[in-house]
Specification:
220 residues; mainly beta
């Protein structure tokens, strides 16, 4: 016989982190996605159906700029692929129009470089763009004034199997039938001021411990 004990808890999560800020004061003839003074590297890979851009360590910090755009339908008849990879760049601007994405920056040797990647099918494509640590959080900006930005975010999902340690072996807990789920911040608000940020929100921590044989859990 299997007997189960279910734990649920609502948690308040607070996360402190340091983030680099980008300067958006420079005017460009398209929607600015990134405007940074320096970066440790830029890597671009583009084909007939997609373009992906990664710019690391923005303004000397830990943040990375990620961008990807691709057509919903694959483009056939072309296998041409363009790759760009430069270390230690400066004056980086990435902007987007309905028809293309444009990149310009200065190389470590002082050479001004610019690239334009046209969308094969502008009305039939997907897009993803954000600044941060890859996979850390997702959300959208609700206010951005001067050096202060407010975002609605969601982050910290985890799932796995668990079992108590250093306990009486008579408990006979079945690890592979005991599960745990964590959603650190289901919904939260993140305030970023210059190079620092504070995020607060609500999450859940759910555990289920399953025993084998005649043992069972009870309230104490």
């Amino acid at each position: 016989m299997l007997r189960k004990l279910l734990f649920t808890a609502t948690i308040i999560a607070a996360t402190f982190s340091a983030n680099a800020q980008t300067d958006t004061t420079q005017s460009v003839p398209c929607d600015t996605l990134l405007n940074a003074s320096t970066a440790s590297s830029i890597y671009v890979i583009s084909s007939a159906s997609s373009t992906a851009i990664t710019v690391k360590n923005l303004n000397g910090g830990q943040d990375t700029f990620f961008y990807s755009s691709g057509n919903q339908k694959k483009a056939y008849g072309s296998i041409t692929q363009t790759q760009i990879n430069y270390p230690d760049i400066s004056d980086i601007v990435v902007c987007e129009t309905p028809n293309d994405v444009k990149i310009r920056f200065t190389s470590s040797e002082g050479e001004s470089l610019s690239y334009t990647f046209t969308f094969a099918d502008p009305d039939n494509r997907s897009i993803k763009s954000y600044i941060g640590t890859k996979g850390s959080d997702f959300g959208f900006t609700i206010s951005h004034k001067k050096s202060t930005k407010w975002d609605v975010i969601s982050d910290g999902i985890g799932f796995g199997w668990g079992t108590p340690i250093n306990t009486n072996t008579d408990m006979d807990v079945s690890m592979w039938k005991s599960s745990e789920f964590i959603f650190n911040m289901i919904l939260g608000i993140k305030m970023t001021h210059r190079r620092h940020s504070l995020s607060m929100g609500f999450g859940i921590h759910w555990q289920e411990l399953t025993t084998k044989g005649p043992n069972y859990f009870s309230k104490n």
